[in-house]
What does this fold into?
Amino acid sequence: MLQIFIRFFSLGLISFGGPAAHIGYFRQTFVQELAWLDDKHYGSLVALSQFMPGPGSSQVGFAIGYHRGGLLGGLAAFVGFTLPSFILLFLFAVTSSQLLNYPITLGVIHGLKLLAVVVVADAVWIMFKQFCQRKTAILLMLTSFAVISLFPGIWIQFALLMLAAVVGQQWLSSTDSLGEPKQSIKLNYLWLGLFTLLFIGSSIMLFGGISSQESGLLGLFSQFYQVGSLVFGGGHVVLPLLQSSVGDAMSGDQFLTGYALAQAVPGPMFALAAYLGAEIWVAQPLLGALVATLAIFLPGFLLMLVALKSWHAMSGRPKITGAIAGVNACVVGFLLAALYDPIFTSAVKDNLDMVLVVIGFALFKLLKPNIFYLVLSFAIAGAVIS
It folds into this structure.
């Protein structure tokens, strides 16, 4: 367990670049260097993480730890990989009131907000090319973008995801495996029952008319558990659902500050929950950060435990893959809406900001620099401007 923790903790210290980069780090370390599993097994874990809602790279890390040391191994991998970013974002949250007194700090944060525009715009472009190749998928993307822009809210997003799954099941199903014999799907119903129970309970907490004063930490847990249950694609896709979920508890500028700071630290993007939980639960910020972080990661891990042994049979069902394709197209629309509001509207204030964003995006696509250097460049640019 200690070996698993140390390996993932060391990766959590240096893993800049988002889920795609994390998956590359994992393959180099656990397949090529340590040989804990082979390429075929690793590829199957990556495929399953894309199939399930939740934080993709963290789910792969959890599955590697589970393969190496059972459930405790999975937990050791999760804690090790997430701990560096959790600590940094928690410290940002509890010291932000002091740090924001300095103009240079405000400048650095503004620079990181501009970086967020570049990074999310790139994510939208990549996901559009990956998930919106068919006319039906493009229509789903545009519909979700228009509806969520005009009528923001987590209930609206949930309804759109369900609609996209139905549409995808009917019109985006793959025909590649229709001639193959269907394999039986053997799910772990214990973990599925726990996931379902928590999902229903969190839904009742959020939409049952219980006030935030009455719900307390259970309400905080429910907010982040719902987000973790509904996010397909991981990474930046979590942004619109999180913003809708916690929008009443903090200002848009405060939320974007946390997102900008999350760009500057290594590790999973879902660790943003540590910052948000500490900012929302100001009476005991460490407790709020822990509850929010646990809640947002938990559903993805539970679903991995449900399907770890049945991923191949599930991926061979055209209706299931079609539903996932529809959901993926829908979340591209969500992310496009979030790119405009709150990211673009909160970050770009004048022509100089727009110039930096356009040049930064062009250099990002042409030169493909390491994300660490990109963070440093935008932070310095923001400080100089301030």
Observations:
- The mean pLDDT is 85.
- The chain has one domain: 103-385.
